[in-house]
Amino acid sequence: MIIEKNAACTLSDGEVLRADVYRPDDEEQHPVLMMRLPYDKETPRYFEEYLSVPRMVEAGYVVILQDVRGRFASGGEFYPFVHEGKDGYDAVEWAARLPFSDGRVGMFGMSYHGYTQLAAASGHPPSLRAIAPVMTMADPWEGLLNDSDTVSATGKFETWVLGSMIEDHLRRKGTLDEEKLRHYLENLPDYLYDSPAETWGPVQDLDPDSYFFEVMQRRVPSAIVKEADLRQALQSATVPALFMGGWYDALLPSTLSAYQAYNGEKSLWIGPWTHEEMTGRAGEVFFEGAEKQIGTERIEDTTELHIEWFDHWLKSKPVRAKEKVNLYVTGSDKWQSFPSMPHGREAETFFLKGSHELSAAEGGGGLGKEKDQQHLPHHMLLDPGAPVPTYGGSALVAGNESGMFDISGLQTRPDVLVYTSEPLKEKKLIMGEVKARLWGEAPSELFDVFIRLSEVDESGRAWNITETYHRERVVPHEPAEMNLSVGVTAHEVKAGHRLRIDLSASNAPHYDVNLNNGQTTRTAAHGEKATEFIYSGPERASAIYLPVER
What we know:
With 550 residues, this protein is of the alpha/beta class. Helix content is 20%, strand content 32%. The protein is built from 12 helices and 23 strands. Helix 3 (84-97) crosses helix 4. The longest helix has 20 residues, at 154-173. Keywords: Hydrolase.
């Protein structure tokens, strides 16, 4: 393997980006696979952990890892997502013209560098032949620049800026105080609870002019926001795209949204993966067949999957995976393949049942096929000073691991409502989008609810399946109907196990906390204890809808 460090890529505006080039040690021309990332191309994770660069070179590819504009070795000024479309176009065409390139280019990478692929593909560079966006998004500001009626993933953004972005930015400015930064990083999980987020102390101290504050205060220029949203542009995309997502990844809804918007040839793989690792371990559970021998064709691993994908579109070789959609079914620990994204043949309804205090410690409520016969309010305490903690699932915040966990201990909190079914007489395969209709009442104009579906085993342990956080503007002290998506899943519940729904009015520090006064911890610091209500009964029947395969 021949290695060239910091190769210069001159963009059309004269700015120079730097890239590390890895290529076969021969005199031939080869297709190029490129990753464009903001996290330092020298990081070992991107050379041998996420995918194996040496194996891709051995398979006959030139592999290029490029620092995006304004990051690490590349010139220019960085602003999230702004330059990735035009720069990506230029970078693809630069790679195609390299003397050891055969003119065909593919792109790969996850998260932000999944977005750089979609942005480049939206511009239709003529040399781009295929992409492989993993755990990514087409609308990067979703959940941050929306209005105050919608929940904000403030903890996720704080974790990203402080944990992944700010150090290089400060070093380039010559203002890096390593000791001070180390203090904030070591104590980041605690700082995530500081509010208001829009004037967050750690970034205020380290970099008061950061784009962080434009985002948190919703001051990002509308033209930038509009241009960064690729969903419409992807409807005219033509290059083939290999999408991959994780059941325990915070970006799964965004990955699915991008996949659905994408109009080119496409394939989708979703495994029991987190944003941090694709080893088969996700939280307290190890899933067989998630790292090695993946898919119904038992492909060696994700590197081999990528090689087969690019071999097909850049070298005209056949692929083993014949179906477009490949899903790992948790609970049964096996892969299934489908011609399109599946959805259960029938929506099975379970009504929330019970009254007043419904934590697991108090016995909880029920999930049943029949409605309660009278209107019953279920008290859901919201104490901004002691919010329900983020735990497992799709968490992507410092100090919290994502994945599948036994959450039964969390469900004993007095501010968590719990509804549990009777033991199932036969196994149940939930396949597709889980939905809910909730009747509730709030003391202020904002109603918050975190909802999670879990499976309870014979020993009483509850294992999370899918979840979401929902905020809606309502009339205070008046019942309101809310319809929401709980999440997409492919999960088999074992016979003898029980289904469980738990509800709470907070999930911190992943999301901003409702202060019960019309504000949240995104813009304010002080709130008050209050009680929301969830209803059951003949007319106000809160329910969960499971897409079930028979």
